[in-house]
Amino acid sequence: MSETEIGLPPGPRLPVPLQTLAWVTRPLPFLLRCRERYGDTFTLRIRNEATWVFLSDPEDVKQVFTGDPNQLRAGEANAILGPVVGQSSVLLLDEPQHMQHRKLMLPPFHGERMQGYGELMADVTRREVESWPLGEPLQLWPRMQAITLEVIMRAVFGITEVERLAHVRSLLEGAIEWLTDRRRLAMMAVLGPQRLQANRRFKASLEPVDMALLQEIAQRRREPDLHERQDILSMLILARHEDGSQMSDLELRDELMTLLLAGHETTATSLAWAFERLMRHPDKLARLRAETLAGEEDVYLDAVVKETLRLRPVLPIVVRRLASPMEIAGRVIPAGTALTPCIYLMHRRPDIYPQPHSFIPERFLEQPAGTYTWIPFGGGVRRCLGASFAQFEMKQVLKTVLAEVELEAIDSRPERVVRRSITLTPGQRATARVNGRVSQRERPLVTA
Questions:
Q1: Which of 163, 170, 185, 406 is most buried, with most CB under 10 Å away?
Q2: CA dihedral 279, 282, 284, 286 (to 10 degrees)
Q3: Rounded to two decimals, what is the model's pTM?
Q4: Cα 412–chain centre separation
């Protein structure tokens, strides 16, 4: 057995600007080439980021997810998101502040409270599907965005008045479109978080949203029925820190922005990928649709969701910045380095997932998803707190759509994976055609 080495594993010798360009423009082929040449562990250097050490061996990933969060700092690693989500966001906090905020935010995303949003999700989806034209090309990805944004507006923000809903929706749509444009990622990489925050155009894009969110918070605090409301904003206003204090307006703004970006864009993209994959596998689409119309349990539906998130993860990596040196993967990695479990490469290990590039939901009927090998939501104490909510919403939307319309792909060829800011989306926006609507007699009662 060889002695433990000190220092970084090998990686591309390209200059930092060229590595950054490859990461921004063609991240997935870049990662596959690196693994082919260097193995499961390699080093990348990206502008305005700590040096990244990529990991895709299950034992190494488990070591990161079960390690000391005071040593493996996720908040520091997410600093580039600071100008958007704010410094009080649960994404940017490290221990012990992170755990305090997480405890306040977790209850609405689990158990009966989460299940209570099921009919809302189904209702929003049905009303959206009613507007879909028959026999014409339809891009599903923006339609999924419309659904998940409406769910966020109603479930998280609790807005129901038509005019306010339209106003806030318009502001949020504009800001999201601006922030998630692929060119903005390049700008973030070049400027870094501090210079980005001072950028005039960046500030102008966020100011109207900030004002709208702060107005909603102020109005909600004054509502006489605050204790009876079921929306997440009201629950967060009523929540208390361990010292009995409530969350400040700034803390609430930052967590709302976090929920908006993490719970809207990513879930919409995952739904678009689910339809894109199903339409290119008619046998699997037919099975899921038949089970949905028969009102069967969601066993196969759950497998479809898990396989979609495996094959087409919306985010390719998880990042933890080392506060002190750490021995992992046969090396002592220096402090300041970012350990980067790679979701994309882990999900393509043939020793764990036979035929790793194929869409095979049945694999999750035969074997449950592994804690450290199925990681679309990260893992450990930093696992995405909305993971259960996102999967629940995906199931509600999928079975509602399939109970309403018959979908077919316009083109049988798979859609390319393209980068949209930090997310990986369908290149043709999951283009489909609605061939027909399900009759009332065939339609099941879709419930949570």
A1: 185
A2: 110
A3: 0.93
A4: 27
